[in-house]
Write a structure and sequence with these properties.
The structure holds two protein chains of two kinds.
Chain A: H1 2-27, H2 30-57, H3 64-81, H4 86-108, H5 113-133, H6 135-138, E1 151-152, E2 155-156, H7 160-183, H8 185-195, H9 197-202, H10 207-233, H11 243-256, H12 263-277, H13 285-299, H14 303-334
Antiparallel strand pairs in A: 1-2
Helix pairs in contact in A: 1-7, 2-7, 2-8, 2-10, 2-11, 2-12, 3-4, 3-5, 3-10, 4-10, 7-8, 7-10, 8-10, 11-12, 11-14
Chain B: H1 4-41, H2 57-67, H3 72-80, E1 101-108, H4 115-130, E2 135-136, E3 145-146, E4 149-150, E5 153-161, H5 166-179, E6 184-186, H6 191-201, E7 208-210, E8 228-229, H7 235-238, H8 242-248, E9 254-260, H9 263-278, E10 282-289, H10 297-300, E11 309-313, H11 316-330, E12 336-338, H12 345-351, E13 359-362, H13 371-383, H14 391-409, H15 415-426, E14 430-432, E15 435-439, E16 445-455, E17 458-468, H16 476-481
Parallel strand pairs in B: 1-5, 1-6, 6-7, 7-8, 9-10, 9-11, 11-12
Antiparallel strand pairs in B: 2-3, 4-5, 13-16, 14-15, 15-16, 16-17
Helix pairs in contact in B: 4-14, 5-6, 8-9, 11-12, 14-15
Classes of the chains: A mainly alpha, B alpha/beta.
Amino acid sequence: MRASERWRRVAWPLAAACIGIVVVPITASDFVLLQIVIKSLWLGIAGASLAFLIGQAGLISLGQTAIFGTAGYMMAILTLSYGLNIWLAAACAVASGPVAGLLVGLLSSRSSGLYLMMLTLAVGVFAFFFGQQYQPITRGHTGFNGFESPVIGDVDFNERRPLFYVTAVAAVLIVVALRYVAGSPAGLAFRGLRDNRERLAALGYNPAAVTVAAFAVSGVAAGIGGVLSVWYNGAISPGSIDITRIIELLVVVTIGGAIRIEGAFLGALAVTLLRNFASDFTNRVETLVGAAFIIVVLFSRHGILGLWLEARSRAPQVFESLRGQLRPRSRAAAGPPAR
Amino acid sequence: MRQRKPTGVWRLLGVLVTLLLIAAACGGDEGEDATTQAPATAPEPAPAPDAPEPPAPPATESAPADAEPTGEGASDDAGDDPAASDDVTATDDGAADATGSITIGAISTLDGPFAALGDFSMHGVKLALLEYGGELDGTDTRDGVSGATVAGLDIELVIEGSDATPDVAVEATRRMVEQDGADIIIGPLSGDEGLALKDYIRDFPEVTLVNGTSASQDLTLRDPAPNVFRFGGDGAMWTFGVGTYAYEELGYRTIATVAEDYSYPYDQVGAVLTEFCALGGTVAERIWVPLGTQDYSSFVAQIPNDVDAVFFAMGGTDAINFVKQYDEFTGQAIPLVAGPTAVDQSVLSELGDRAEGLISSGPVVDDSGLAEFDAFAARLDEVFPGQTPNIFNVYYYIATKSALQALEEVGGDLSDASAAFQAALAEQSWQTPIGPVVLDDNRQAVVDMYLRRVDGGIQKTIETLPKVNATLGFDRDEYIAQGSFSRDNPSC
């Protein structure tokens, strides 16, 4: 009973995702597929790592680009500098995500709130400057160009459709995995950290360890996002992880809504659409993105996702009250006009 | 209620997918262009051999035309010209033909640290289009130019901005090429963007990239792309002659260099040292500072006391900050020699009196006396009051004008993957505002440079260095074999 219900809950969104994966590449143009869909998917994956940290563990990290960048740079360095087999390199790069997450977590394990933000910001900026200046490894400001995605037989991942499948499947897996973690006892501990650090400690948990674990989990998503961004851009440079990208991730998560992992994808899609199509109507795209951000923050604490959830939870009441109001009103209309 | 909540959460995943679908559907309209664009280019090479010349297009063109649904893509282009000249009825799709319009996409750094330079570049683009009957749509940098025509075809201008990072530059260019159907791209501004765009544009042989001011050597020197053209110098060419002048005329024997730590300054320092060391000079110290450094004290402290001069290669605020702090620390004891953009006309006024007497090399001087230059300067001031020629507006102007001239020569024919147009572009040889230009086999310009000195707030010519080429006059194979300039290459 319980199992079947859970299955039902999982089945149809998964089916929808599958349909999406099948239909989108058929209907979308090459341009939309690459620059809107694939871009929002990998940006969403990176955003999901932050949405997970903020939404589940209450850790506002500005160091996600460091993790993202570590994985991305690993991908590029191992293949372009060391000529490693591309799949091996991809595996190493993906694995470097949680490791980097672990390190960032260790650094910030004893802090929270504003101090955590400052610490992680320092980590994020450090990663940028490391990329910019540690030239023997990172090739400095220019970074890595001309990265070629792998080819298996006839399937060339430099092509847009194969790349879409990889990114989409990765996105679905990330959402499933992060939701699984969130639903596990560990997820409970993360939310304990978010809601009340002291009480979590009183319950016998070690908040520092929980923080590190949360960062490590988020590192998986950030790492995969980093690797996919290199596949998408065919390049990585310090510009890919500079302070504007740190802010962009935060904007993506805030616009989308951090209460659920999926919010990051909504936010990524919204930002990507704005960046690409707003210029058709206005010369001030960045202003528009900023305005959208302010509006979302003002009107919905939980972003677009929050608007949707609120609308949905209120819909029955509204319907009922509408129904309730319509009847008395019609009665009132039919009744003798007072006054 | 409570039990249904999580169900709904999962629905969000579905909603996301639906949104993606909607996005896909929306894009589908414009996408028609993009999807047909790909096949349109693919079959082209096949029919090309039997029908190389445009006069016999019906056979080659009708196939894609039939395949094209009579939808948005078609009506868009036909809209301008419904009577569609009877020889060709196909739609314009990047692969282009003799009807409709030609789209030029201009990209520069309109956001981020170089935003001011982006404005200058767009002035240049617009000025060239105005010469072809265009009118400014507005005063904003992103406002286009409408009404320009070449060979009876309307020229549409699409303007996109980057923030000087390669990722953003590629996305912006992709938008112009695949979404707006741009046939020609003018830009970008910075070196690393140029390299990234070269990689991208290689996959679209029918689209032509005419570089703006990206000064990376390897845009054209090594592994060139057939559809990438540069009508200006690169970072090394812009610095040509300084090393020789410093050794022979100024009598310097030992210098130190201070430069920003990335590829463009490597080229400048590399060019100076290549000449300077070949004559017997030595470099005491090469100091690399991170881009955007505010505090130069630790770097200035590294400059040895016994050098004859310091060559500094920086741009914008970095140059201004450096010079200020250099003066404070050293009391101007050691003379400075400047890189081309450190004393470009775009920042010269901010250096004020301190710039007086600084020696540099570069493509733009204010007293060349060339009629073309004076006309350009007058026109620039007339259209954009208060603007004076600098490297950015001049280079973007030259790039745009070269493309328009080539378009005119081929009658706007962009068929056969722009083959005729690109051939004509490669043959462009004309008198630009900064001297004559011709292209070499890698589609890299051979141009005049000027050894110059700041005098009275403007750049005055010391000597004109005619026909500087990409290898600075050295043997081509040897020059290429020595590898890209880097922190410690050349090793002298």
